[in-house]
Specification:
The structure is a single chain. By secondary structure, the chain is an alpha/beta fold. Among the domains are: about 150 residues, P-loop containing nucleotide triphosphate hydrolases (Rossmann fold, 3-Layer(aba) Sandwich); about 60 residues, Alpha-Beta Plaits (2-Layer Sandwich). Helices cover about 35% and strands about 25% of the residues. The strands form 3 sheets. It has a 6-stranded mixed β-sheet with strand order 6-7-8-3-9-10, sandwiched between helices. α6 links the parallel β7 and β8. α5 packs parallel to α6. The longest helix has 18 residues. The protein is elongated, with a radius of gyration of 24 Å. GO terms for molecular function: ATP binding; ATP hydrolysis activity.
Length: about 300
């Protein structure tokens, strides 16, 4: 059984003489929240337009739900929901009426309207005109529209664009619920790396139309950990310093009351803590100076790829 809901093989695309995608390889496992990242001009929007059948596939192969997009476009789209930035709503109509119009187009059963309104938390506001909706409510209604045919795959491009912190949180929690409770695979493109960090388990980073990294967020952090340090605060830093040196640990320049120790793997943090405590030294704090997703993203896109963990 194919474990991937989206696959691209050697996907290339150009607008005239400008090459946008170059042998792009993507593998999106079923049941994941998959972050799709890249700087402006990396080819993210073009990729999404191809996945949704809005652009042809001139070179390479694109598979969704195990079907080739070139030959099965309509069957694929029936199983795929999408929200690209802001939803297109009829503002003079209620949320319910917007859903009813869309339901008729996608031929979804009538009961789906009440179901999706409940899922996105808009049941109480269903009969209000959407002109009265906040941006966050509008985005959730847009996701409801995408959910009407009960697709297994949701493609969301910048779903939190323009939202305030409250709206961002509402959409994030909805995405997590859709994945956790309903088993939806979410293909999520966003410039808000902190949101990807809170949602995604798998991700791909692309630049200039090529895949620089693909794998789990956990693997990415583990790859970065090799270059990081531990910051330690103890009740006797001078004794701790000598003890760590005697045990062949590499200490960096000391700053104020903090010891910094070069580490190669996260297991060394536990070993260092054990060593100090067993020698009568109280450890007040021990913190891995790990890079966050934003720092890793900038490192990869500015300096080239780290060793990729390709599926």
């Amino acid at each position: 059984m194919n474990p991937y809901i989206i696959e691209t093989h050697g996907l290339s695309y150009s607008f005239g003489k400008r090459q946008v995608l170059q042998n792009l390889e993507l593998r999106v496992p079923k049941g994941t929240i998959f972050g799709f990242l890249g700087p402006n001009g990396a080819g993210k929007s073009t990729t999404i337009r191809i996945l949704l059948g809005l652009l042809p596939v001139p070179k390479g192969q694109v598979l969704l739900h195990g079907l080739d997009l070139k030959d099965n476009r309509l069957d694929i789209l029936r199983q795929t929901g999408a929200l690209i930035e802001m939803p297109t709503l009829y503002r003079h109509l209620s949320g319910y009426d917007n859903l009813e119009m869309h339901r008729r187009m996608v031929r979804a059963p009538k009961h789906r309207i009440a179901e999706v309104l409940k899922i996105v938390g808009l049941a109480q506001d269903a009969h209000r005109k959407t002109s009265e909706y906040s941006l966050g409510m509008s985005q959730r209604l847009g996701i409801a529209l995408a959910l009407l045919p009960d697709p297994q795959l949701l493609i969301l491009d910048e779903p939190t664009n323009g939202l305030d912190p409250s709206g961002i949180r509402e959409v994030r929690e909805l995405i997590l619920r859709l994945n956790r409770d309903l088993g939806k695979t979410i293909f999520l493109s966003s410039h808000l790396l902190s949101e990807i960090e809170k949602c995604a388990t798998e991700l791909a980073i692309i630049d200039k139309g090529e895949t620089l990294y693909q794998g789990s967020l956990k693997q990415l952090y583990q790859s970065a950990f090799r270059t990081n340090v531990l910051r330690l605060e103890t009740n006797n830093n001078s004794v701790a310093h000598k003890l760590l040196q005697d045990h062949q640990y590499q200490l960096l320049a000391q700053e104020a009351d903090i010891l910094t120790v070069q580490v190669k793997e996260k297991e060394q943090a536990a070993a260092i803590n054990k060593l100090l405590v067993e020698n009568g030294i109280s450890v007040y704090s021990l913190q891995a100076n790990s890079q966050n997703l934003e720092e890793l993203f900038l490192s990869i896109t500015n300096k080239g790829a780290i060793t990729p963990a390709m599926h």
